[in-house]
Amino acid sequence: MNEKSLGVYVYEKKVFYYLEAGKVHMTNTVERIKRTLFQRNIIAANISGSYSAPTYEIMSVAQAKLKEYQMEPIYLSKNIQESVEKKPEAQSKSWS
């Protein structure tokens, strides 16, 4: 997870969502996150055209860490999820 990467903080859930793509470089991550959150019914689109208070805020991972928000990854694929979750296990096994 890159500190400069952007994510979405959802006020109602009090959770910061970020895109976890492993070592793959991704562009337009905010739109991917917002689309996923729409599909999961976590945030809703304002299609009425009238002004309503925002339900989420876009910020960097570094800002979310400073504010100590609960963070939840959105994995790009199941393969990336498996490799990221196995990474700490692989690092704990050492030859010494």
Kindly summarize this structure in a few lines.
With 96 residues, this protein is α+β, with helices and mostly antiparallel strands. The protein has one domain (6-92).
Outline the structure in words.
The protein has 96 residues and is of the alpha+beta class. It has one domain. Helix content is 33%, strand content 23%. It contains three helices and four strands. The chain has helices at residues 29-39, 61-66, 78-92; strands at 6-10, 15-20, 56-60, 70-75. A four-stranded mixed beta sheet has the order 3-1-2-4. Strand 1 (6-10) and strand 2 form a beta hairpin. The chain is globular.
Task: Summarize this structure as a short list of keywords or feature phrases.
alpha+beta, 3 helices, 4 strands, globular
Shape: globular
The rounded distance between the terminal residues' Cα atoms is: 28 Å
Radius of gyration: 16 Å
How much beta, percentage-wise? 15-25%
* Overall SS class: alpha+beta
Number of helices: 3
Q: Domain count, please report it.
A: 1
Helix/strand layout:
Elements: E1 6-10, E2 15-20, H1 29-39, E3 56-60, H2 61-66, E4 70-75, H3 78-92
Parallel strand pairs: 2-4
Antiparallel strand pairs: 1-2, 1-3
